[in-house]
């Protein structure tokens, strides 16, 4: 059993002051694989103090020094890519497609930020003034257990490029991945205090970090409920915020969509990362005139989304992350049946042949209205709903009738029509005939899916404060 007992503060790998231990399980086997020693308030205060000391010098660095560090971080993480992949499979149950397709983004985020800095201008003339983009200060980065390393890289790379210093609080459920990352940070010769990483529970150190007067910025990816709490904490001294929160994404299949490609894409989006992504397309909006075709196409495509051992390349859906999450998803499947929805595929319990592990049957409900809770609430598991519509305007109305607005999809054979529909959908990102976003475009949500944007210059400027100098 692994003992994970390191934090990264002020350029050193240290043992946390906190003594509480949190268990780590393999979700595919339910086996206890380790425990992590959690940081406490003393560790949180030490990390912020280190970041504050480092900000004095790091904020004054030029492009060359920041680019050099970003490239060192990218190279160091690239050398540990196999370790990151193995950790994600072991403690998270990620399937081969996710591990091979998304984990390489971890070092790539730092390389992208370095490339962006080569042409980004921190001083710009504006009328009779000069606008200077200055680093915001000490930034706290709080990341969830799903796609942990990618989210950390996304936020930390932007902050470092901006000249800010960082305190990272990852989830205790991603401790193996975090350990690999902090070892890579230490090997990259990061100036002391520029990056600090402490693993701990939100209710122990989260409030300490998000209320600390020396913290100027909070970047958070996670649930809407926690985002609301962070926003309240930040209001006390007007911290800058980037909050990427929950979603209930619509996938609109217009009546001229090529179902042979659109339906498998819709299922891929919905079941992505074992159904544990905030930007998943979990509401499939189908034209009533082709509803039977859509349902038949879903049934035909389901063999490609079978649950099983995440190490098997043929597996389409792995386990959910914990017993708690398994119980939550099962409760939603029961709720859908109680609300009057019908099962097209899946249902309660584990998939056939899997008697252990937190595996959920990939489930698709039909006979769903947009007012049912299974159509309105984020389930965070492999559970999708199919909702029929008659006209394009009705599809847009259903899509927008949601408290969330993170990512949406439109499938159509008519480019002009797809654009017309996409521009009416209330979401931070709308994808046409594709399921993965553009890393150079802004990413973030509207409504209860959050505020602020990440990626490229939008993510960089989230850690910069514009100031005007007028002569």
From TrEMBL:
Keywords: Oxidoreductase. InterPro entries: Ald_DH/histidinol_DH, Ald_DH_C, Ald_DH_N, Aldehyde_DH_dom. Transmembrane segments: none annotated. CDD domains: ALDH_CddD_SSP0762. Residues 22-468 form the Aldehyde dehydrogenase domain. The keyword Oxidoreductase applies. This is Aldehyde dehydrogenase family protein. Belongs to the aldehyde dehydrogenase family. Coiled coil: none annotated. It comes from Streptomyces erythrogriseus.
């Amino acid at each position: 059993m692994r003992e994970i007992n390191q934090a990264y503060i002020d350029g050193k790998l240290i043992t946390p002051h906190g003594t509480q231990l949190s268990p780590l399980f393999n979700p595919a086997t339910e086996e206890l694989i380790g425990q992590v020693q959690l940081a406490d308030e003393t560790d949180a205060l030490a990390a912020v103090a280190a970041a504050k000391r480092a900000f004095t010098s790091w904020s004054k660095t030029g492009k060359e020094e920041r680019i050099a560090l970003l490239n060192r971080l990218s190279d160091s993480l690239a050398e540990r890519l196999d370790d990151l992949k193995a950790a994600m499979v072991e403690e998270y149950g990620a399937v081969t497609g996710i591990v091979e397709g998304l984990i390489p983004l971890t070092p790539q985020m730092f390389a992208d930020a370095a490339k962006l800095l080569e042409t980004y201008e921190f001083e710009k003339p504006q009328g009779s003034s000069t606008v200077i983009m200055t680093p915001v200060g000490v930034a706290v980065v709080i990341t969830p257990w799903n796609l942990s390393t990618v989210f950390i890289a996304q936020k930390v790379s932007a902050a470092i490029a901006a000249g800010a210093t960082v305190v990272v609080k990852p989830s205790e459920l991603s401790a193996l991945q975090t350990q690999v990352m902090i070892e890579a940070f230490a090997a990259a010769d990061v100036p002391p205090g520029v990056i600090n990483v402490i693993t701990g529970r939100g209710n122990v150190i989260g409030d300490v970090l998000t209320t600390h007067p020396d913290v100027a910025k909070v970047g958070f990816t996670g649930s809407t409920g926690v985002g609301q709490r962070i926003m309240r904490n930040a209001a006390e001294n007007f911290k800058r915020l980037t909050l990427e929160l929950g979603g209930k994404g619509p996938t609109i299949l217009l009546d001229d969509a090529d179902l042979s490609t659109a339906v498998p894409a819709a299922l891929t989006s919905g079941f992505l990362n074992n159904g544990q992504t905030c930007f998943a397309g979990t509401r499939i909006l189908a034209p009533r005139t082709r509803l039977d075709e859509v349902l038949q196409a879903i049934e035909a495509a389901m063999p490609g989304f079978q649950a099983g051992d995440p190490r098997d390349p043929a597996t389409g859906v792995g386990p959910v992350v914990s017993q708690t999450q398994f119980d939550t998803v099962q409760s939603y499947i029961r709720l859908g049946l109680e609300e009057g929805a019908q099962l097209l595929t899946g249902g309660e319990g584990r998939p056939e042949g899997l008697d252990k592990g937190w595996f959920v049957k990939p489930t698709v409900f039909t006979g769903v209205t947009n007012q049912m809770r299974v159509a309105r609430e984020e389930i965070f598991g492999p559970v999708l709903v199919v909702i029929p519509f008659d006209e394009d305007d009705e599809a847009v109305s259903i899509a927008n009738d949601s408290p969330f607005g993170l990512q949406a999809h439109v499938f159509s054979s008519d480019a002009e029509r797809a654009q017309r529909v996409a521009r009416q959908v209330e979401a931070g990102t709308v994808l046409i005939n594709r399921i993965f976003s553009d890393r150079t475009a802004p990413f973030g949500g509207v409504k209860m899916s959050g505020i602020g944007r990440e990626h490229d210059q939008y993510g960089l400027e989230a850690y910069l404060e514009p100031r005007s100098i007028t002569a």
